[in-house]
Design a protein that fits this description.
single chain, 157 residues, mainly alpha, 7 helices
């Protein structure tokens, strides 16, 4: 694990010590990631772009950029994030095809409710969310959760 990654995970963890806040993050961080990707997925793309691939949209562009950032921090965690991102993309595609409401409406509801949960968790914690100090912590939240999974499995990251 790189010194930078260790420092980021430690700093993020400093404002996530309360068990209730941790539980809230296990629920809300994936929901925020999924819903944000869904909102980006819903942005109409020019016909020429859509013709290249039905998977090419703002969400997949953001996923690629995020994964590049993750690879700079940790190859094993980046691979995990590629798998998570792919699973979320498949989920979004299914939701888009089968939902009663438009994808953007469902994702907007999830996004708002999950952020309310996050801020409530930080109120319980008594500390401000890390991203208020540094926006890169919006990308560290999912890695922070994934690093616990890797540790539980005994995988190096």
């Amino acid at each position: 694990m790189s010194t930078t990654l260790n420092a980021l995970l430690t700093e993020y963890g400093d404002s996530h010590q309360n068990p209730t806040n941790k539980l809230v993050h296990w629920i809300c961080v994936p929901l925020i990631m999924f819903s944000l990707l869904g909102l980006l997925w819903s942005v109409p793309m020019p016909a020429g772009v859509r013709a290249l691939s039905p998977w090419l949209n703002l969400a997949t562009v953001v996923m690629v950029l995020a994964v590049v950032y993750y690879f700079r921090l940790s190859v094993p965690l980046a691979i995990g994030m590629v798998l998570i991102s792919a699973a979320m993309a498949l989920g979004l595609k299914q939701l888009e095809a089968n939902a009663v409401l438009p994808l953007w409406a469902i994702c907007l509801i999830i996004f708002v409710v999950a952020w309310i949960g996050q801020f409530w968790g930080h109120k319980v914690e008594g500390k401000k969310p890390s991203f208020l100090k540094d926006l890169q912590f919006l990308l560290i939240g999912p890695l922070w959760l994934l690093h616990f999974v890797y540790r539980r499995l005994g995988w190096q990251y």
